[in-house]
Amino acid sequence: MLDNNKTNHPLRQHIEEIVPLTDKEFDFVLSHFETTKKRKHQYLVQEGEIVKKEYWITKGCVKSYFLNENGKEHILRFAMEHWWITDYESFVKQTPSKINIDCLEDCELLYITFENRDKLTSQMHKMERFWAKKSKFGRIALQQRILSLLKNSTKERYDLLLEQYPQLFQRVPKKLIASYLGVSRETLSRLDS
Predict the structure, then answer these.
(1) d(CA 163, CA 58)
(2) What pLDDT score does 193 carry?
(3) How far is CA 85 from CA 23, 63, 191, in A?
(4) Domain count, the chain
(5) Record's InterPro entries (predicted)?
(6) Confidence band (pLDDT; 50, 70, 90) for 5?
(7) Which one of 5, 21, 28, 179 counts the least CB within 10 Å of its CB?
(8) Which long-range contacts (C-beta less than 8 Å, at least 24 apart) are formed by 20-27?
């Protein structure tokens, strides 16, 4: 699944975008993770469960979403290779999840449990800095998404998504992209033509 060469390991490269690691440090970090494979349509998180794992995607694409009282799906985000995903409220507070996360493709993932992440960050300050910075980036991305929903036209939101993540349009059905943008499939078809 992953390159055994420590220097080329994708997780190490990802972490080292923020903090440098020695081989020994990376071995220690990696010892806190497990690997898993999920098939297309399998859940990573189901509404109502207490989330125990944070996932890092090595291969595949997933969506996080909730269903309203009428059963309509509202997509919160997509995640692809080298992105982190979980229900962070449930993961941090250890309360029942309010969202679902499932695989849009067959996926290969690394995951870290809440306990292992807590242990790792308390024993290795570099990883505490890494996750603090990743959390800041996540808050910035969320703020940008909210601002875009509030101030941009549908066409502007569509163009921005296409510009930022063109590969998404090759991997995700149009009806899901429409849900993410908060528009109907018909409106998306007009923008797409």
Answers:
(1) 23
(2) 61
(3) 26, 9, 29
(4) 1
(5) cNMP-bd_dom, cNMP-bd_dom_sf, RmlC-like_jellyroll
(6) low
(7) 5
(8) 20/126, 21/126, 25/124, 25/126
Q: Token pair of 7, please? A: 């220097």
Give residue 14's domain range.
10-124
Contact 75, 63 (CB under 8 A): yes
pLDDT per position as a tens digit, 7-28: 789 999 999 999 999 999 999 9
Indicate which CATH number applies to the domain containing 37.
2.60.120.10
List 85's β-bridge partners, or say none: 55
Written as one letter, the residue type at 190 is R
List of residues 6+ apart from 93 with CB closer than 8 A:
none
pTM over 0.85? The answer is: yes
CB of 104 closer than 8 Å to CB of 167: no
CB 12 within 8 A of CB 19: no
Rounded Cα gap, residues 55 and 100, in angstroms: 14
Contact present, 149 and 75 (Cβ < 8 Å): no
Is the pLDDT at 125 greater than 50? The verdict is: yes
Strand ranges, E, within 46-99: 53-59, 62-67, 73-79, 84-85
